[in-house]
Design a protein that fits this description.
single chain; 271 residues; mainly alpha; 2 domains; two-stranded antiparallel ribbon; 14 helices
């Protein structure tokens, strides 16, 4: 498929984003890989790229090689050390949207519905936010993970949302610990300490007590599965897809609502 020439504003926007992502020497290698000759005399990286893009698409009378360069630049193998990859992808997709394309999280270019207005481009950029709103996601997730949601950074949305749960427990109880230790301190009840800091119910029946214990196990599982791996693995090694992120965040929303509705039992008892 032959892609029509991109207008100057789109070329310039692409050049600025990719120019900020790489060193000049890395950009030169990418241009070689994409078979785009570099005869620019510009010292600024993005201006150099813009020159190369304009020359190449005028030679070809199409934008195919420009899009090929973008796809090469957004290849995950070229971005292992780029902590802003998802933000960069979001930014460039706003420009690509005006010519009917987008970069997927795996770096591949796909066809999408063409953006007509700035509003169209920004709506596509907040796709994850809209999906979360459709699920009536708990407001704390938007509070704790605002920038990560805006950039569709699934890895860090889950990470920050999980951290937010334990931060909320600390805020309600005044405790300072984390993870399983915090859960035990905040919610456990036993003969020597029958009143927990937070109680989901009256704890007067075996069923209610089982619910409290089950919730404790759920919190410990969430911490172990989503907080610890995210804290110790780099993003490229801990792959999270959109559908998985949405399901995890729905679970964390449920947890947040249960904590919101929990009684501060120890305080109510004057302890």
């Amino acid at each position: 498929m032959t892609v029509k020439k991109l207008d100057g504003g789109i070329l310039q926007g692409i050049a600025k984003i990719i120019g900020d992502m790489f060193t000049r020497s890395a950009l030169s290698k990418l241009l070689v890989e994409a078979h785009i000759e570099n005869k620019s005399q510009e010292s600024t990286k993005w201006r150099m790229l813009d020159d190369c893009f304009i020359t190449k698409q005028n030679q070809d009378n199409c934008a195919n090689n420009i899009l090929n360069f973008v796809q090469i630049a957004f290849s995950p193998t070229h971005n292992l050390d780029n902590p802003h990859y998802e933000r960069n992808r979001l930014e460039i997709n706003q420009y690509l949207g005006f010519c009917g394309f987008a970069i997927r999280p795996d770096g591949k270019i796909i066809s999408v519905e063409k953006s007509v207005t700035i509003s169209d481009a920004k709506k596509r950029a907040i796709h994850l936010k809209n999906k979360l709103r459709e699920r009536n996601t708990h407001h704390d997730i938007f509070t704790y993970c605002g920038s990560e949601i805006e950039s569709e950074n699934y890895f860090h949305v889950v990470f920050e949302a999980t951290k937010g749960v334990f931060d909320k427990i600390r805020s309600r109880t005044g405790l300072k610990s984390d993870g399983a230790e915090l859960v035990a301190e905040a919610l456990s009840f036993e003969q020597s300490k029958p009143v927990p800091y937070l109680a989901l119910n009256s704890l007067s029946t075996k069923s209610e007590q089982s619910e409290q214990k089950g919730f404790m196990n759920l919190l410990i599982g969430i911490y172990g599965m989503f907080r610890n791996p995210a804290g110790h693995e780099v993003k490229i090694k801990w792959d999270i897809k959109e559908e998985d992120a949405l399901d995890i965040l729905s679970l964390i929303s449920l947890v947040n609502r249960r904590i919101d509705n929990a009684t501060e039992a120890k305080k109510a008892m004057g302890q």
